[in-house]
Design a protein that fits this description.
This protein is of the alpha+beta class and 158 residues long. It is 22% helix and 14% strand. A hairpin with a 7-residue loop joins strand 4 (120-123) and strand 5. Its main location: cytoplasm.
Length: 158
């Protein structure tokens, strides 16, 4: 087992966190306690978004692509880290930050174009370009909007 608090001391970071867990992961503690860091989930991922993260643990990088919820990571894992596929993959959602081009009055709808669930819509406002409106009930946390955003203003987290 790797103690991430000891790693934090050596890296001078105030906090080490696993940015995006893996879909269907039972709990973050399951990952740090039971993951053998074998890399099976990394090679099984169809969109290559699972990468080796802090401490060698697998994590999701939405800057690469989106999660298609294919369940291959869970099927490839030799440990029992994952819930069944019929359960919800995770409870993360997108947030749009102030760096959004539309919030700076520059026309951009890239995130909405890539949002398959149509959780990101745009509302016309007087004197401004259309502003993004996020419907969290529709957002499944796939991260497709993250890599599409030219200003890196979108984050997917709890």
């Amino acid at each position: 087992m790797v103690d991430l608090n000891k790693r934090r001391f050596l890296t001078r970071k105030s906090e080490i966190k696993l940015n995006h867990q893996l879909p269907w992961l039972q709990s973050p503690q399951t990952l740090t306690h039971d993951c053998t860091q074998c890399g099976q989930c990394v090679t099984a991922c169809e969109t290559n978004i699972i990468v080796k993260g802090d401490g060698g643990f697998p994590t999701v990088d939405f800057n690469i692509d989106e999660c298609t919820f294919c369940y291959r990571c869970a099927e490839a894992c030799p440990e029992s880290l994952f819930k069944t596929q019929d359960e919800s993959p995770w409870d993360i959602k997108a947030t749009i930050g102030e760096g959004c081009l539309a919030k700076q009055n520059v026309e951009c709808r890239s995130c909405g174009d890539f949002c398959e669930t149509m959780a990101i819509g745009f509302k016309l406002e007087l004197g401004k370009v259309a502003q993004p409106k996020l419907n969290l009930d529709e957002c499944n946390g796939c991260g497709a909007c993250v890599s599409a955003c030219p200003s890196n203003a979108i984050n997917v987290s709890k």
